[in-house]
Amino acid sequence: MSNSSSLTQFLLLALADRRELQLLHFWLFLAISLAALLANGLILSAVAWDHHLHTPMGFFLLHLSLTDLGCICTTVPKAMHNSLWDTTTISYQGCAAQLFFFYFFLSAEFSLLTIMCYDRYVAICKPLHYGTLLGSRACAHMAAAAWATGFLNALLHTANTFSLPLCQGNALGQFFCEIPHILKLSCSHSGYLREIGLIGVSACLGFGCFIFIVFSYVQIFRAVLRIPSQQGRHKAFSTCLPHLVVVSIVISTGMFSHLKPPSISSPTLDLALSVLYSVVPPALNPLIYSLRNQDLKDALRKM
């Protein structure tokens, strides 16, 4: 048996056993990460450069791109390194840092998506109050609250998880450091329950954000359907569709990965789902927004 005081490294789950498949995963992750870096970098540059995008939605889109870059840069480089050099190890400190930054960026992203939903609700349901409710000071405060929420959530989970005594080995059944897989190595019942309680609190807050998003979109769709002109309805829907698609991808992949029935669980499926919710959304988000946002497309053409 080992404990957390003597652990110096963890063993991550290998993406493949055969060397050819490991190199294939390396090139695949390299392509995804380069595409995400390029796309998010273009969005950051466009929002900063074009004054037409100096709006609340542009401001929040800039912060969303930062969280996407953070998520990609937290998990993918280590997976690429392990695939290229045929290893599965990660240091104890590296695992703690990876877990902290992953939950930091993921929590901040979900908070920002909730705020962006509020932006669409005010823009469509209360257009006369848009300038008052979403002024520059209010936007700055909401963005700061999203980042602070992500930081606090990540700090609490990381500190509690890595304070647990670990005596079930050091092999994690995941290609990056994630809380549920570290908890399986714990031999402290009280510490385990404490972390489960923290996860429950985070889940309740996330569910509250989900309910807010659903309620907001019900009000948005009711308001859009009352618009007399078809062109007006189309324009209103087109401004909401990218956000709705991004929220659906983030929520559906995350929920299915963690709440799927044990009867359909398998190492291959679990690995595919973990890639789906941790790597794919940050790479797809900029594409979804750039395809549907006319102002953003115009700014990218000018650049």
UniProtKB/TrEMBL annotation:
Q: Which InterPro entries match?
A: GPCR_Rhodpsn, GPCR_Rhodpsn_7TM, Olfact_rcpt, Olfactory_GPCR
Q: Transmembrane residues, as ranges?
A: 26-47, 100-118, 138-156, 196-218, 239-259, 271-291
Which Gene3D superfamilies does this UniProt record tie to the protein?
A: Rhodopsin 7-helix transmembrane proteins
Q: What is its main location?
A: membrane
* Keywords assigned by UniProt, alphabetized: Cell membrane, G-protein coupled receptor, Membrane, Olfaction, Receptor, Sensory transduction, Transducer, Transmembrane, Transmembrane helix
- Please give, as recorded in its UniProt entry, the membrane topology of this protein: Multi-pass membrane protein
Which Gene Ontology CC terms are recorded? plasma membrane
The answer to whether UniProt assigns keyword Cell inner membrane to this entry is no
**Could you tell me where this protein is found in the cell?**
Cell membrane
Q: Does the keyword Transmembrane apply?
A: yes
Q: Name one GO molecular function term.
A: G protein-coupled receptor activity
Coiled-coil parts of chain = none
Annotated ranges, domain G-protein coupled receptors family 1 profile: 39-289
Q: Name one Pfam family in it.
A: 7tm_4
Q: Which family does the similarity line name?
A: Belongs to the G-protein coupled receptor 1 family.
The protein's role, per its UniProt record = Odorant receptor.
- Identification of the protein by name: Olfactory receptor
Q: Which gene encodes it?
A: LOC120325363
